[in-house]
Amino acid sequence: MSSPELTTTEGRAGDGRLAEALRKVASSMVAILTTLFGLLLLTFIIGRMIPADPVISILGDNFDQAAYDRVYRELGLDRPVPEQFLTYVQNILHLDFGQSNVTRNPVAADLARVFPATLELAVLAIFIGTLLGVPLGIASAVRRGTWVDHLGRVVGLLGYSTPIFWLGTMVILIFYARLGWIPGGGRIDLYNDGLVEGPTGMLILDALMAREWEVLRSALHHIAAPALLLGYAAMAYLSRMSRSFMLEQLNQEYILTARAKGLGQRPIVWKHAFRNIRVQLLTVVTLAFCGLLDGAVLIETVFGWPGLGQYLTAALFYADMNAVLGSVLLIGLISILINLLTDVVYRFVDPRTR
Amino acid sequence: MSVPPKSEGLRAWLLNEDFSSPAQARAHQAYVTWLRFSANPLALGGLIVVVLLVLAAWFAPWIATHDPLEQDLARALLPLSSAHWFGTDELGRDVYSRLVYGARTTLYIAILVTVIVGPIGFVVGAAAGYVGGWVDTVLMRITDIFLAFPSLVLALAFSAALGPGIENAVIAIALTVWPPVARLVRAETLTFRKADFVVAAELQGAGVARIMFLYIVPLCAPSVVIRLTLNMASIILTAAGLGFLGLGAQPPAPEWGAMAAQGRQYLLDAWWLTAIPGMAILLVSLAFNLLGDGLRDILDPKNA
């Protein structure tokens, strides 16, 4: 008698859960779309604020009134501002970021060319930062107050406080100019340049796939210093965060219970506490990755790394606004995308969010 | 009245917990806080460096040995010596004097950004947290949009749009610093929103603005002050990064980031042009980090 009722209740509960899940997905989609919209609005407004006349920056100094008016109309500047914004959004959706006034290429093509170099650098750096920073932070928490903890604190404080462009310059001065251990800049030696034109644009991967070991060696030699420096900045942040996450877990009562049951230090740390900080760690690793893009702008400038950061700073130097806005928009999009990705991974790792 | 008894001295009066007046209670509180702060040597060191920075900025004309803008091409790129403690740059200007005057630029940016950002963070965060509903949704969406950009990149975009210059750099940095402050104030506000004293004020007919500014903002103040102190370090680093990329203070004004950038051209011949301004940036941002950590340990122990 009671079993059909039970099924209905369960069925209803199941529906409720599904509806809840759908509602969550819908609300996060809305959140992402509004953030995207805001991103576009923000870059559009920044583009409007420039004191320089965009027409003059295209035409140069010598032009007549007719040419000025023609370009003015071609840029759509005679239209109402909301319409200009719509056109801007349409163009972006068609991956049209306008033309760079310096390279004379479409900005989208330029970005596609320089982005793999930055991605390669940032991915390597986040690996270095995570693999060194998280264990250091956990060791600091487990051995609180010992030399490991003090070391972690010093590493973290220096990483937070050091201007990375200055550290990069000092590394070049010491390890390139004085000792000759590292190359002076760029992604690869001159005589290895252009040997591998790979599918990914990331030299290390392309060289691996093409089995060009000499190219690989040169690429690794060039990426080492900038990747280590960027990785150090990420490591400082990650070790500090993972230390505080771990400390919070170790003070919980279930850890005390586990100790009372006679469980050893190693399983307590890795089987109990670490499992519970994985989600938090994932969040801070993604935050660190977004923060890396900041450092990449400066490090790429210092090391002559032909990536997005160097493209952006060169564009700033020549007041090439389309290129600046395109790069900034791309970086903003990457940040949103990464956050979205974290959200998705959450649902797999953390059962409470299901 | 509570005059300190002569026989026991000021210290005993401050430490005595049988308060005879509100003034004594407040003095006691301040003294105990100071004792706990000064027991942390790192935080104390940070405070000393910050005080030295303020003194250097304030008394720059007396501390500097030369005019920071005076050029002397005959004395260009001189190494460290007793006449020029930190050498001279490519135009023969005294690096030590430029460093001292550069403290003014650094402090000016850091203080101005903080003064702009604090009130914005309080208003946005308290409004979102206290009023709630669609106000909260809209304000937090806007905050998220600003947070989507890495801060230096956003500051770069704004200063590119506004044009180079120190005031524009301040605006650009402020635009990137306010969102985390607003988030913090909102989170703190949410914890007090339903507190009895707030409800009591509401029942007495207090308006939204009155509750926000007289009841909620004062309670958020300690954690925001800590946050802003810790932020000083990142503001200084961002400002230096902008200066390094040529977007902050414009030459010939002495600014540490720009000095380090200009020195890069002479890196092999004159390392001090880059090394010394960079060390100044490192020292000052380290000091603010240590000071902020120390303040957090005593004022906000739950987040230590």
Task: Tell me what you see in this structure.
The complex is a heterodimer of chains A (354) and B (304). With 354 residues, chain A is mainly α. Chain A has 13 helices and no strands. Chain A has helices spanning 2-49, 54-59, 65-74, 81-93, 107-142, 147-161, 164-178, 203-210, 213-250, 253-260, 265-303, 308-317, 321-349. Chain B starts with 8 loop residues before the first helix and ends in a 5-residue tail after the last helix. The mean pLDDT of chain B is 86. Chain B has a single domain, classed as MetI-like (MetI-like fold, Orthogonal Bundle), CATH 1.10.3720. Chain B has 304 residues and is mainly α. Chain B has 12 helices and no strands. Chain B has helices at 9-15, 22-38, 41-58, 60-63, 95-131, 133-147, 151-162, 166-192, 196-203, 208-244, 256-263, 272-299. The interface between A and B is large, with 47 and 44 residues.
- Percent of residues in helices of chain A comes to over 70%
Helicity range of the residues of chain B?
Answer: over 70%
Structural class of chain B: mainly alpha
Q: Which value, in Å, is the CA radius of gyration of chain B? A: 23 Å
User: Could you tell me the mean pLDDT of chain A?
Assistant: 83
- Assess the beta-strand content of chain B as a share of residues: under 5%
Distance between the termini of chain A: 32 Å
Strand content of chain A: under 5%
CATH architecture of chain B: Orthogonal Bundle
Number of strands of chain B: 0
Question: Which residue ranges of chain B are poorly predicted, with pLDDT under 50 across at least 5 consecutive positions?
Answer: none
Derived from helix and strand composition plus strand pairing, the structural class of chain A reads: mainly alpha
Distance between the termini of chain B: 39 Å
Which H/E pattern describes the elements of chain B?
HHHHHHHHHHHH
Query: At the first level of CATH, what is the class of chain B?
Result: Mainly Alpha
